[in-house]
């Protein structure tokens, strides 16, 4: 099988490419250039798309003896991920750019280009497992290493994309991957993991958004009293469930912690309240993506709303283009724009973008 190995320049994608080669596939390494002004050194860019990273990926490809290319997808990334990120926050939602990148870039733009060039599949260094059923169908499952499991951010893959995806690291822990990289003589064996949002170099999301949307002074209002208790520079930079960075004068409150319970970017208003106002047990999601056939009727699932959040037992059903989810217990800080990913055991059933959440009594 002819396989494109997406090589970010990190240790995970390096070992993934090596394992695909060991499995007997014809492998070509590809690094995605996603930034039109990539910083030269990781110290000034904490993501996975720097010039330094491209060089690291090339060195691994040289060790493996495989062809290596850099594919420029900066324009597509800017439109589908970066601009979408800004638009979502501007609308008062909290997006996950990693899911959008997997959906729009790695398993749409990259996979489409690979297929057009005659390749059969794409392999990445994500921590997840693909299980082949007896009928030849494929299922997406959680990784063995629960601390590194990335099945949540892969929940946007549909059955056709999953049929052409390989995740060679899903049965291995991260320490084992680093040891394997050292044994293979990879320079990146001890390279730190990328973190935070790759296109926000300093990790300051609020400052980054402000530089693009400008300051928009507005009020912070208490949900119980309706009184104005503070001010903000832009409602777009707040998210439901947020506690830190509110800048409130605690002496004017009753001493109980306050959280963001509502963001209204049209009125440019942030509403805060006590923790009891955060709990929800009902979710409506749109933009449904199924890793196989949609469920028929009401099904028992586990629901997860953050990349490293807890999985909560739930019931879910398809409702036209939407997904309805009823949680068995209340969950705090469920924000519009986040993704809810549904599981059956370790298997990913599908995902949806959270449009609405509420307490269904």
Automatic annotation (TrEMBL):
Subcellular location: Cytoplasm
Catalysed transformations (reactions): S-sulfanyl-L-cysteinyl-[protein] + uridine(34) in tRNA + AH2 + ATP = 2-thiouridine(34) in tRNA + L-cysteinyl-[protein] + A + AMP + diphosphate + H(+)
Coiled coil: none
Active-site residues annotated for this sequence: 101 (nucleophile), 198 (cysteine persulfide intermediate)
E.C. numbers: 2.8.1.13
Site feature (Interaction with tRNA) residues: 126, 338
Domain of life: Bacteria
Enzyme class: transferase
Binding site for ATP: 6-13, 32, 125
All residue ranges annotated as the tRNA-specific 2-thiouridylase MnmA-like C-terminal domain in the record: 282-354
Domain tRNA-specific 2-thiouridylase MnmA-like central: start-end pairs: 208-273
GO molecular function: ATP binding; tRNA binding; tRNA-uridine 2-sulfurtransferase activity
Keywords (A to Z) from UniProt: ATP-binding, Cytoplasm, Disulfide bond, Nucleotide-binding, RNA-binding, Transferase, tRNA processing, tRNA-binding
Gene Ontology biological process terms from the UniProt entry: tRNA wobble position uridine thiolation
Gene Ontology cellular-component annotations: cytoplasm
Listed HAMAP family: tRNA_thiouridyl_MnmA
Entry function: Catalyzes the 2-thiolation of uridine at the wobble position (U34) of tRNA, leading to the formation of s(2)U34.
Family the entry assigns: Belongs to the MnmA/TRMU family.
Record protein name field: tRNA-specific 2-thiouridylase MnmA
Protein's organism: Knoellia koreensis
């Amino acid at each position: 099988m002819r396989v494109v190995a997406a090589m970010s320049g990190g240790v995970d994608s390096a070992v993934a490419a090596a394992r695909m080669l060991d499995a007997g596939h014809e492998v070509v390494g590809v690094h995605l250039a996603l930034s039109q002004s990539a910083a030269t050194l990781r110290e000034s860019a904490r993501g996975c798309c720097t010039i330094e990273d491209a060089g690291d990926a090339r060195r691994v490809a040289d060790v493996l003896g495989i062809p290596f290319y850099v594919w420029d997808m900066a324009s597509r990334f800017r439109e589908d991920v970066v601009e979408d990120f800004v638009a979502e926050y501007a609308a008062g939602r909290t997006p996950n750019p990693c899911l959008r990148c997997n959906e729009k870039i790695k398993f749409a733009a990259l996979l489409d280009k690979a297929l057009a060039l005659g390749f059969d599949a794409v392999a990445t260094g994500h921590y997840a497992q693909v299980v082949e059923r007896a009928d030849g169908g494929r299922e997406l499952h959680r990784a063995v290493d629960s601390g590194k499991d990335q099945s949540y951010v892969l929940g946007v893959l549909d059955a056709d994309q999953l049929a052409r995806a390989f995740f060679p690291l899903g049965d291995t822990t991260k320490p084992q991957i680093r040891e394997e990289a050292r044994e293979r003589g990879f320079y990146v064996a001890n390279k730190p993991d990328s973190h935070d949002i790759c296109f926000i170099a300093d990790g300051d999301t609020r400052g980054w958004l402000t530089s693009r949307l400008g300051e928009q002074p507005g009020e912070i209002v208490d949900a119980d009293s309706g009184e104005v208790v503070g001010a903000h520079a832009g409602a777009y930079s707040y998210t439901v469930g947020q506690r830190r960075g509110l800048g409130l004068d605690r002496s004017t409150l009753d001493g109980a912690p306050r959280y963001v319970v509502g963001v209204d970017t049209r009125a440019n208003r942030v509403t805060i309240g006590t923790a009891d106002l955060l709990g929800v047990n009902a979710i409506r999601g749109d933009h449904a993506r199924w890793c196989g056939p949609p469920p028929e009727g009401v099904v028992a699932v586990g629901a997860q709303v953050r990349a490293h959040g807890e999985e909560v037992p739930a019931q879910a059903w398809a409702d036209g283009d939407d997904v309805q989810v009823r949680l068995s217990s209340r969950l705090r800080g469920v924000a519009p724009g986040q993704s809810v990913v549904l599981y059956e055991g370790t298997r990913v059933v599908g995902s949806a973008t959270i449009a609405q959440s509420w307490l269904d009594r």
